[in-house]
Amino acid sequence: MSRLDSFLEAALARIERAGQRRTLRASTLAPGGRVLREGRELVDFSSNDYLGLARHPLLVERAREWTAAHGTGSGASRLVTGTSAAHLALEAKIAAFKGTEAALLFATGWQANAAVIPALLAAIPGAAVFTDRLIHASMHAGVSMAGVRQHRFRHNDLDHLETLLASKGADAPARLILTESVFSMDGDRADLPRLAALAEAHDAALFVDEAHATGVLGPQGKGLSAEVPGRIDLIMGTFSKALGGFGAYVAGSQVLIDYLVNTASGFVFTTAPPPAVLGAIDAALDIVPGMEAERAHLAALGERLRTGLAALGLDHGASSTQIVPAMIGAEEDTLALSAKLEAAGFLASAIRPPTVPPGTSRLRLALRASHAREDVDAFLAALKAAL
Ligand code: PMP
């Protein structure tokens, strides 16, 4: 064994002892809210393909057409030769969808958050950063890359944020608030009107991650940012969840986008998204605004699932979206429950530390518009038996 491998073996053994070693398992999304895993078809409550677009014929066809016309690779990074007319047209389309002056494509949501936050903070040395405790790992990565201390407020507790804004960083040249509009592991929403008002009152910039809201919530699926038009400085979101594709966007003012084109390392130093990815996004943006029936169905499924969980005595936190946690608590119990459900034909992933705080292990249930009400009922019956 090489010297490197022996260190890594020891590190993996520590992860194993902590009960946190994970392995990859092959899965394939299937129609009807199903997933194929190791030869079995399971009812899927674990994927983020909320609107069923990942296999939609229009997206598949446009990805194919754009590949046939322009090839499989973009050839270079955006500032070299990687920017095609399609990139620019798509960015204009995203800005129109989000109601902002401009928008910029990123390879992934993780990369966008990890690149944009340090770039912003480089322009305002000494800025005070205020973060919801439950923001995504990629935003934490961005803040830590910037080497800035963050003032964390209790999850969705805007009284706490207000206290911090009043007491911390009074002498800072600027303030930045980071949050999500729909939280990925809890399915609850941020109060954007109050956040925007707080940001305005304390002269802070507001950064909102709409990864799980884009396509699903707001008028025409434009996200919750549509509740506060023009009042969020930077909106970030992904195409990899409800939009059924891959990649991410940042939307905001033209100055913001021009600045990021020049400075965000995960934009400047990476290859431009390829034609297939652009084609799928372009098609998704054509059909998402009209998917009101799917959005209403998802909302109704969410209500049904929450009512059923409550009847079983399970806490679903403050979920009000297509993401519904079934709070279990201990890691081992959550893993055992997830395994029993899988044996019964349902994929309900156990989410545990470090993804969520200790003692809050849960089944993270994600609904898909292709689920029938009967799928939710059958899941609740299986869960009751497993409990
Ligand atoms: N932000 C949030 C809130 C997320 O849940 C995720 C994905 N898990 C990301 C960013 C990262 O997006 P991507 O998967 O496109 O890298």
From TrEMBL:
<protein>
    <recommendedName>
        <fullName>8-amino-7-ketopelargonate synthase</fullName>
        <ecNumber>2.3.1.47</ecNumber>
    </recommendedName>
</protein>
<dbReference type="InterPro" id="IPR015421">
    <property type="entry name" value="PyrdxlP-dep_Trfase_major"/>
</dbReference>
<dbReference type="Pfam" id="PF00155">
    <property type="entry name" value="Aminotran_1_2"/>
</dbReference>
<dbReference type="InterPro" id="IPR004839">
    <property type="entry name" value="Aminotransferase_I/II_large"/>
</dbReference>
<dbReference type="InterPro" id="IPR050087">
    <property type="entry name" value="AON_synthase_class-II"/>
</dbReference>
<feature type="domain" description="Aminotransferase class I/classII large">
    <location>
        <begin position="41"/>
        <end position="383"/>
    </location>
</feature>
<comment type="function">
    <text>Catalyzes the decarboxylative condensation of pimeloyl-[acyl-carrier protein] and L-alanine to produce 8-amino-7-oxononanoate (AON), [acyl-carrier protein], and carbon dioxide.</text>
</comment>
<dbReference type="InterPro" id="IPR001917">
    <property type="entry name" value="Aminotrans_II_pyridoxalP_BS"/>
</dbReference>
<keyword id="KW-0093">Biotin biosynthesis</keyword>
<dbReference type="InterPro" id="IPR015424">
    <property type="entry name" value="PyrdxlP-dep_Trfase"/>
</dbReference>
<comment type="subunit">
    <text>Homodimer.</text>
</comment>
<dbReference type="InterPro" id="IPR015422">
    <property type="entry name" value="PyrdxlP-dep_Trfase_small"/>
</dbReference>
<comment type="similarity">
    <text>Belongs to the class-II pyridoxal-phosphate-dependent aminotransferase family. BioF subfamily.</text>
</comment>
<keyword id="KW-0012">Acyltransferase</keyword>
<keyword id="KW-0808">Transferase</keyword>
<comment type="pathway">
    <text>Cofactor biosynthesis; biotin biosynthesis.</text>
</comment>
<dbReference type="GO" id="GO:0008710">
    <property type="term" value="F:8-amino-7-oxononanoate synthase activity"/>
</dbReference>
<keyword id="KW-0663">Pyridoxal phosphate</keyword>
<dbReference type="InterPro" id="IPR004723">
    <property type="entry name" value="AONS_Archaea/Proteobacteria"/>
</dbReference>
